[in-house]
Amino acid sequence: MKDALVLQSRVPAHPDSRCWFLAWNPTGTLLASCGGDRKIRIWGTEGDSWICKSVLSEGHQRTVRKVAWSPCGNYLASASFDATTCIWKKNQDDFECVTTLEGHENEVKSVAWAPSGNLLATCSRDKSVWVWEVDEEDEYECVSVLNSHTQDVKHVVWHPSQELLASASYDD
Question: Which residues contact 159 (CB under 8 A, 6 or more apart)?
Fold first, then answer.
C-alpha cells in the first residue's frame, strides 16, 4: 500500500463503557459518539486536539446504539436500547432533545435520515422498521410500520439520492 493510513489522534470517547457508533456531521466539523454509558458526546477540534464540545446525557435510560445527523446538520437522531429515538436540535454549541419517538416494543438498533431530511427510519429488535415523517414545525409522525423481517432488524440505510430504504436483519 503506497499511502498507509496514519493514526492522527486517540480520543477516550466513552472511557467507562463501550463506544457503539460514530457519525460525522455533514460538513465534517463535528463528530458524534454514543455508547453504553447512555450518553452522546459531540467532538470538535481546537488546533491539533480533539475536545468534547457537548455531552448529551438526558435523553436515554439505556445504551445509545446509533447516532445519525440530518442532511442539514441541525439535528442529531439517537437510537437506544430503551426502545426510543431522541431528536436533538443544535442551538449554536448546545443541543436540546426536542422530541422522543416511541413505539418500538424493544431495543432500537439503528436510525437513518432520508437525503431530503423529511423522513427518518428506525429499526428494532422487535423485527420492525418504522418510517417517520417530519414537518415544518419539527413534528414527527409515524407514516409506516414495515413488518417484513422475521428476526432482529440491525440496520437501516437510505439511498444517497432517492427515497429508497434498505434494512438488514438476522433473517435467513
Answer: 115, 165, 166
**Cβ 59 vs Cβ 86: under 8 Å:** yes
Residue written as grid cell 450518553: 39
Q: What is d(CA 1, CA 9) in angstroms, rounded to the nearest whole number?
A: 21
106 lies in some domain: yes
Domain hosting 81: range is 19-169
Question: What's the CA angle centered on 73, arms 72 and 79, to 5 degrees?
Answer: 115
pLDDT digits (tens, 9 = 90+) for 119-130: 999 999 999 999
Total structural domains in the chain?
1
Instruction: Compute the distance between CA of residue 84 and CA of residue 120 in angstroms, rounded to an integer.
Output: 13
pLDDT of residue 1: 55
What are the grid coordinates assigned to 105, written together?
416494543
Pair 74, 90: CB distance under 8 Å: yes
Convert the pLDDT of each residue in 80-116 to its tens digit.
999 999 999 998 878 999 999 999 999 999 999 999 9
